[in-house]
Amino acid sequence: MPQLHPVCKVGEIPLGESIVVTLNKKEVAVFHDDGKFYAIDDMCPHAGASLSGGHVENGTVTCPWHAWCFRLTDGARINSPKVKTACYSVEIIGDVLHVAVPDKPE
Questions:
Q1: Which distant-in-sequence residues (6+ apart) come within 8 Å of 76 by Cβ?
Q2: Engineered SS bond to 31: which of 18, 60, 75, 81, CB 3.0-4.6 Å?
Q3: Residues 63, 55 contacting (CB under 8 angstroms)
Q4: Of 93, 84, 88, nearest to 105 (Cα)?
Q5: Tens place of pLDDT for every residue, the chain, 106 residues?
Q6: How many CB atoms are closer than 10 A to CB 54?
Q7: Dihedral, CA atoms, 71, 20, 42, 56, nearest 10 degrees?
Q8: DSSP summary character for residue 50
């Protein structure tokens, strides 16, 4: 069962930026795009690049190594939706962002 983990205050991630947090031994990238927050695994499933270093725009992040684009809403690759990275729900409680990740790493 996923647990909510506080990661930062809402104002700490500028629009179009991201942070990386370690939750239950997983590196999770938390993105701020168009006034919403999203969380996906930080590692690109293609070659292992840090997705948090990619360009964020229109609900997607572009991997900085090979330009693969992933939707922030579900972690699916734009041109090949069967390729995915894990996606986690984000909740705002007060002014703090919380990310729900499984109790145990997969």
A1: 70, 82, 83, 84
A2: 18
A3: no
A4: 88
A5: 788 999 999 999 999 999 999 999 999 999 999 999 999 999 999 999 999 999 999 999 999 999 999 999 999 999 998 999 999 999 999 999 999 998 765 5
A6: 22
A7: 30
A8: B
Beta strands per DSSP E along 1-103: 2-9, 18-23, 26-33, 36-41, 55-57, 60-62, 69-71, 87-88, 90-93, 96-102
Structural domains of the chain, with CATH: 2-102 (2.102.10.10)
The pTM score is: 0.92
DSSP 3-state of 15: coil
Report the C-alpha gap between 27 and 49 in whole angstroms. 12
Contact 87, 74 (CB under 8 A): yes
